[in-house]
Amino acid sequence: MTSTYDFIVVGAGASGCVVASRLARTSSRPSVLLLEAGGSNDTLEHLPATERFNIAFSPGSSLNWHYKTTKQQQLRGQEIDYSRGRGLGGSTAINFCAWIVGSRDDYDEWAREVQDSSFGWENVKRCLKRIENLHPEIPDPKLRKSMLTGFADHGNAGPVHLTYGDSWLPDLGDIFVAAEESGLKTNPDINSGDAIGMGMGSICLYRGQRLTSSSTYLSGSPGNLTVMPNASVSRIIFKGSTAIGVETTKGEKFLAAKEVIVSGGALNTPQILMLSGLGPEEKLKKFQIPVVQHLPMVGRNLQDHCFSPIGIIMKDDETKSTNGGTQSPSPMGWFKLPSVLASPEYEMLKSQKRDFLQRPTVPSYEIATHTPPSFLSHDVTPGTSFLGAIALVMNPQSTGTVDLRSTNPETAPSIDPKFLSHDYDRRVIIDSIRETMRMLSAPVYAKRTMKMLGPDNDSDEAIWDHVTKHLFSSWHMSCTARMGTGPDTACVDSDFRVFGVKNLRVVDLSVCPFVPNNHTQSTAYIVGEIAAEKIAKSYRLDESVQAQL
User: Which of 302, 310, 375, 298 has its CA nearest to residue 81?
Assistant: First the structure.
């Protein structure tokens, strides 16, 4: 017998867990089914941050979809790792744990583009206070005066516990010295809506354990919420142009009395939509998929932050060691690049984009330090220590695609991010690597440095040569079912409803109009909260969707 639920949510990542939990906890108590392709991921060895990469990124790990990009011809044909979390919690179970909100100008621009103030900074701040539970203790007494120690603009009662780690490496303070010696500002709260400057981001790690969307939003879930792991959805079932349910790869069918909500993430959501007959008509006909609705932007506009690493090998000093595993956050900062904003590549952009890039909280690039030597295939030898840093391109202008390889839902989609295919992005990565090299050459490090790992020199040519050999995704893929005002340029409206069909919404990072200037898990939680409010309002489920978990 086919089971019927009020709402079916496909995908238990950050957004999916949030929207399923919030809807189920309204006083109307609608029946909610949350389907997840992966397993439950509920054993403790999956949670500690120190184990996240060993477990999730090992070959054959059940926690990872193990996706790769197509060959990036502009990058010497590299196939770049495009890992995504699989199982309850999605990528919140395998990511770096960084909690970075981003630029207030990002959210205000999102609101402007979709003509809906729900996505503006003032409403986002309200949502964040409902999500966050910040513990602002600073492990390093020497840095407490220069770091956030209060709750004024942050939540302290939400389900997602945030900390600054339980211990910091003894050399972390040198990063702030190096920034100041390099003429860069520092920032005591990079989650204030203005991330410009070098600072310390909070992490979703509490009492030694990782906080995932599953461990936070699904904990103690009510009886009207059914969570079903190991249930991979093959397609959405339509009656005419109305979504009425889903079918799994095992042939099981589940019906939705009210709505189907797709939260598969920026790679799997467009795959599910296209397998269900929603997408570019010519792409669907290629695989003889009956067209339910021609939506040319499904699987288009893929955006992500790519990065390139450098590092320095230093004489080891136990009082300032950069080695060893801790549960410490990484120093990170966002900066403008005057050289980029004065470049021919910038001048070639449309005027509206140029104006946005000039706004005060919009950065050109991010730098993060204390990154692993594995990014440079370096092994730390006795008597030395390694300090790694990465430069990430913000506001990428290169856009990629997600396409079907076959009609088999278990076949990985074809993913082409087209990293650094746009001249502007090339200018940003070259100039940001140059700035990162300059910061790691500051006097505080120069006296101990034995060798810099990276470009042979700081010329454009040497840096580009290095980048084409050492480029990575930051796994912030977004925008493949973008939100907007019409089906020619977008896939969903500002209420997350898919254009041209009924009773179907997309709620995940694929709806972002552009990738925000942050580490995107926080945005995924925000998207889930805003969507839950909108859906609850449209069905008059009541206002208790805002109740604390």
Answer: 375
**Residue environment code for 278-297, b if the CB has 16+ CB neighbours within 10 A, otherwise e:** bbbeebbeeeebeebbbbbb
Taking phi first (over 0 means left), then psi (-120 to 50 degrees means alpha), and beta for anything else, what does residue 199 get? beta
Task: Answer yes or no: is pLDDT of 326 > 60.
Answer: no
Q: What is the DSSP string of 135-204?
A: ----S-GGGGGGS----TTS-BSSSEEEBS-S---TTHHHHHHHHHHTT--B-S-TTSS--BEEEE-EES
Cβ–Cβ < 8 Å for 210, 466: no
Residue-level length of the chain = 549
Report the amino acid identity of residue 477: M
The DSSP call for residue 100 is: B
Task: Express each pLDDT in 338-379 by its tens digit.
Answer: 999 999 999 999 999 999 999 999 999 999 999 988 899 888
What end-to-end distance do the CA atoms of the chain give, in Å? 33
CA distance 496 to 119: 12
Q: Which of 198, 189, 187, 191 is nearest to 121 (CA)?
A: 191
Task: Please tell me what DSSP assigns to residue 232.
Answer: -
Q: What is the pLDDT of residues 377-403, one digit of tens each?
A: 888 788 889 999 999 999 999 999 999
Handedness of CA 539, 156, 132, 549 (dihedral sign): negative
Query: Rounded CA gap, 91 and 86, in Å?
Result: 7
Distances (CA, A) of 525 to 209, 239, 246, 497, 500: 19, 31, 24, 18, 26
Q: Is the dihedral of CA 33, 40, 204, 53 positive or negative?
A: negative
**Superfamily for 3-45+212-301+479-546?**
FAD/NAD(P)-binding domain (3.50.50.60)
Q: What distance in Å separates the CA atoms of residue 425 and residue 339, rounded to the nearest whole number?
A: 13
At residue 134, φ and ψ (nearest 5 deg) are -85, 130
8 A C-beta contact, residue 175 and residue 198: yes
Contact, 263 vs 455, CB < 8 A? Answer: no
**What digits encode the pLDDT tens for the residues 120-149?**
999 999 999 999 999 988 888 888 777 776
Banded pLDDT at 160 (limits 50, 70, 90): very high
Give the list of residues 6+ apart from residue 367 with CB closer than 8 angstroms, or none. Answer: 198, 332, 333, 335, 389, 390, 391, 392, 432, 435, 436, 439
Q: Which token pair is 210?
A: 């990782």
